[in-house]
Amino acid sequence: MDATAIKDSGAGRSAASITLANLGKVYPDGTVAVGDISLEVPAGELVVLIGPSGCGKSTVLRMINRLIEPSKGRILIDGRDVAAQDPVELRRQIGYVIQNVGLFPHQTIRTNVGTVPRLLGWDRKRIRSRADELLDLVGLDPARHGGRYPHELSGGQRQRVGVARALAADPVVLLMDEPFSAVDPIVRSRLQEEFLRLQATVRKTIVLVTHDIDEAVRLGDRIAVLAEGGLLLQYAPPAELLSRPASPAVREFVGADRGIRRLAVTPVRDAMRPIGHVEEISRLPTVDLSGTLHDALAVMLTSDSLNVIVVEDGTPVGAVSRSALFDMPNEEATAIA
Ligand SMILES: Nc1ncnc2c1ncn2[C@@H]1O[C@H](COP(=O)(O)OP(=O)(O)OP(=O)(O)O)[C@@H](O)[C@H]1O
């Protein structure tokens, strides 16, 4: 992971793992922003940091790219301590997307996207073709938008440019600090959806900060819940966090409607039973095997049916009943019983 590797490569470098080991930050005024956090972000996964305002999320992110130096602990990227690397060089290899994007107002969109490649000394032609490739990847037409200035785009479009710029030099790590919070809920939802598609293509290691539990559940392969003082309360995949909150504090944070959220991250397969028990298959609505229980519930509600047939490549493979959705084992309840 050095600058020459980036210079020599085009796109498609692999992602890197990130290790936080007993990471802590006390600001000079004595504020303990981050207590003691240890966690591992596997290469190519998207990890969400979530927690109440002031719990240290941005501080963790900014320690990863050395905008802030830790008071204790270590950060390893692919096993290499970031403290041993030149901060400027390190930052050129780590994409960073912030709320309100921070685009340069007097530069065109294409020039903004080419910022890091330019710093890395790529030639003009290569920078331009890379910028256009990235704009296309985030759903902006290079011919239409490439020559515009940031104020000539909508908030959602600017946000996409921010993501394109962060990906331009094909970083192995992407840090995102509330990347979608400055846009309205409908644009936000569309950006999240597009971002998931983008991530399926580029498979970067991403650490994303948000306040929004729905965003965390939708985007995260894993979620780290932090508390005041920068303490790690739980680190788990969304489904586990929702079904087995590690403490009352996490349960409260995750929210009372977590049963519904859990449906959105539980595969249809988990509540499926053999099809033999269901009558009149052909009249029942269907849901694809790749769907979630939330999809199954939506189909049941719109068709006013108590059962839904699960299909794989168009062939019925099982059925899910409405009661089965709410009989899903709740390990927390079992533990209490
Ligand atoms: N430069 C600083 N000096 C002193 N305290 C700071 C400094 N920067 C941040 N803090 C404090 O450190 C704590 C963590 O701040 P941080 O910005 O990391 O939290 P956050 O979880 O990202 O918050 P938010 O969700 O509101 O953005 C807060 O109490 C904040 O006031």
From TrEMBL:
<dbReference type="InterPro" id="IPR046342">
    <property type="entry name" value="CBS_dom_sf"/>
</dbReference>
<dbReference type="Pfam" id="PF00005">
    <property type="entry name" value="ABC_tran"/>
</dbReference>
<dbReference type="InterPro" id="IPR027417">
    <property type="entry name" value="P-loop_NTPase"/>
</dbReference>
<keyword id="KW-0547">Nucleotide-binding</keyword>
<feature type="domain" description="ABC transporter">
    <location>
        <begin position="18"/>
        <end position="253"/>
    </location>
</feature>
<keyword id="KW-0813">Transport</keyword>
<dbReference type="InterPro" id="IPR017871">
    <property type="entry name" value="ABC_transporter-like_CS"/>
</dbReference>
<dbReference type="InterPro" id="IPR003439">
    <property type="entry name" value="ABC_transporter-like_ATP-bd"/>
</dbReference>
<comment type="similarity">
    <text>Belongs to the ABC transporter superfamily.</text>
</comment>
<dbReference type="GO" id="GO:0016887">
    <property type="term" value="F:ATP hydrolysis activity"/>
</dbReference>
<dbReference type="InterPro" id="IPR003593">
    <property type="entry name" value="AAA+_ATPase"/>
</dbReference>
<dbReference type="GO" id="GO:0015418">
    <property type="term" value="F:ABC-type quaternary ammonium compound transporting activity"/>
</dbReference>
<dbReference type="GO" id="GO:0005524">
    <property type="term" value="F:ATP binding"/>
</dbReference>
<protein>
    <recommendedName>
        <fullName>ABC-type quaternary amine transporter</fullName>
        <ecNumber>7.6.2.9</ecNumber>
    </recommendedName>
</protein>
<keyword id="KW-0067">ATP-binding</keyword>
